[in-house]
Every structure is written in structure tokens, then in C-alpha cells.
Amino acid sequence: MFKKKNTLISSFILLAMIFSACSVIQENQVQLPTEDVATVQEEENNIPDQVLEYTQGEDALVKIYKNVNPGVVSILVYTSDGGVGQGSGFVYDSEGRIITNYHVIENATEIEITFSEGTRTRGEVIGTDMDSDLAVIKVNVAADVLRPLTLGSSSDLAVGQFVIAIGNPYGFTGSMTTGIVSALGRVLDSIRSSETGSAFAAGDTIQTDAAINPGNSGGPLLNLDGEVIGINRAIYDETTSAFESASYSGIGFAIPIDIVKRVVPYLISEGSYDYPYLGISSLDGLTMDEIEAMGFDASIQGVYVLDVTTGGPAAKAGIRAGTRTTKYAGLYAGGDLIIAIDGIDINNYNQLLNYMFMNKAPGDTIMVTVLRNGAERDLEVTLGSRSEQ
């Protein structure tokens, strides 16, 4: 498969070079010397064989679709108020467990699952997690209907890597789209935040430009080996909610599969997953002026503590938020800047969230290094539980 990846990418580059070269010749209308013309003609004679390599890339995509689509399902949800919703999911294991988004099955009174070969059955939700926006559905079907997908890794993803989404946008079942990883480490609000009013976040989210539309939620995001590296979750739209309300804008988000692999076993065995809780709020993307207004050198990276939850783990450990007003509304000077956790440098809020989610549990202790009034301080924090907030 590695060779096919290179072939696909090389083919795209080759085609771009060919089209670019043609444009230059047409615009400049420069007559090449005879010997150069002969060279060009000789090279052109070789182009058809090289262009044919593109079909190998097509073959790779066709093969991925044939292998993966039987494991992708369509989910129809009925709610108590008479509403009907639609989403996607995929087969997790041979025991009949299906993974999808929490927001797909939220408030469901009945769930209908349809497999690509036509089998239809009802499903039962056996576990949910609002913070990662995950849910597990159990179905009872013949063993040969279940085609579990292979889970890959999201820890080694790179921006620019080709990705594939398969799902059911607008009810068009089994639709496949392609794109790239546009960015990594995005931070989205947790669904728990909207339901409880508390400030919870989900970190390490994958951003992609693969076309994702309403109905794609819960479906797999794949690499060119056909492995699931994320679960399609949301669409960005500045005028509406990100969840299943907008159309494709070129900015979609997926839950990283490493988070899924950590959370889903708990959803199966216990029905829920308990995240560690620090009790601060922060924000990536502050400008240099905003950082300097809070009293820090703008060249220093870290997590700027915008707020500390009263009585929370951070507050009990002595972590401080700012109290002095600045020229920016909602930004206060005099608070702490978190620069490390357990001796590991922390450059942004996403890194902090990802470290806790992947390495810690409620009740664990962490050593938080903060910069306060120009001096470093180590503060030991006993993490709490999000479920208790």
C-alpha cells in the first residue's frame, strides 16, 4: 500500500506539472530550438505511460471502497417528539458493536441500522460519551453481515496526508469523498458544555477538507491503507452550530482514533468514560498584544489560565487566574501561565488536554509548572472527574 500511496501522490504532481507546462507554452508562445523540440517530443512520447500510472491510484481508491464500505452503516434515529435523524457509523467488532457519534443518537427512542448489502435491523445504545462525542450501538445480525473495520493510529498523522471519508450525506448511502489532513490539534467544545453550561473541551481534533455533510457524522475517516484514523464529527459554519446543521465548507472535524481506542472499551464494559478534570479554562490563538496585556512575554509559549473553577482541582492546588482588567474584555492580567506538566513542555491548550486524556485518570496527580510574576512554580494537582461537575 505504501507504494500505491507514492504512486497516487506522484501522479497528482505529474499531472500538475504537465498542465503547468502547457500553460506556459501557450501564454509565452516561445519557439524552442530544434534540438530542444526533439527533446520535448521524446519526453512527450513517454508521458502516456506515466499518466497511465494514475489509474493505479484509482485502483487503490476503488479497492479501499470495496473493502471498507461493507463495514459502514446508515443510522436512522426516531425521537419522542416525532423527529427523524440520519447519520453514519461503522462496525467495530464481530460481536455486533457499531461506533457512531453521540449527537447522532442523542434523544433516540428507536434506532434503525442498515448495512451496505441491505440488511436492516434495530440497534440498542450500550454506551455514550458526550465529551468525545462517541456512542456504541449493539445489533444482532448474522455473523457474515458484520465486517469490522481496521483501526489505525492518529498519533503519527501529518498535515497534507490524504484521507477518505465514507458515509451517508443527506441520505445518499455509501458516499465516498477524498481530501487531506488540513490541520491537527484543533480544540472543540464538548457537547457536555452545551448541556451543563460548564466549559469543557475536546482536544486533538483532526481538521480535514474531505467533503463532510449532514449524514456523514459518525462515519469513518480513513488513510490510504483503509484504516480508520478518525470519526467524522462536525462541520464548521460561522453562522450556525457545527453539529449537523451546516453544509460542506471545506472545514470538517474528526475525532482522532487514538481517543476512540481509549474510550470505546469503557463504553462497552461500563457504558461511560470518566475524563480527568483540571478545572481551568484557556484559549489558543491569542494575539501578541493580548498576551502582553496579561503581563507575559509574547515569545513564551504555554497555556494562559483565563479562569479557574471555584473549588476545582486547579483552585485547590493554588493555580491562579488573572484579576486585573486589561484593555481586552474578558482578559485579566496577573494569572498563571502553564508551561509544563510532569516535566513535559506544554505549548498550547490542546497539548494539555491531550496529555491528560491519554495519560491520566480522575484521582491521578500531576505536577503543573506555572510562570507567575516572572518565576517558575511547581504545583501538585490531584485531578478530579468531569462527571462530578
Describe the fold and architecture.
There is one protein chain. This protein is of the alpha+beta class and about 400 residues long. It is built from nine helices and 23 strands. The protein has helices at about 1-30, 35-50, 55-70, 100-105, 190-195, 255-270, 290-295, 315, 350-360, and strands at about 70-80, 85-90, 95-100, 110-115, 120-130, 135-140, 160-165, 175-190, 200-210, 220, 230-235, 250-255, 275, 280, 305, 305-310, 325, 330-335, 335-340, 345, 365-370, 375-380, 385. The longest helix is centred in the N-terminal third of the chain and has 27 residues, at about 1-30. It is elongated, with a radius of gyration of 25 Å. The relative contact order is 0.10. Residues about 1-45 and about 240-245 have low confidence and may be disordered.
How many DSSP helices? 9
Report the C-alpha radius of gyration, rounded: 25 Å
Q: Compute the separation of the termini in Å.
A: 46 Å
Note poorly predicted spans.
1-44, 240-245
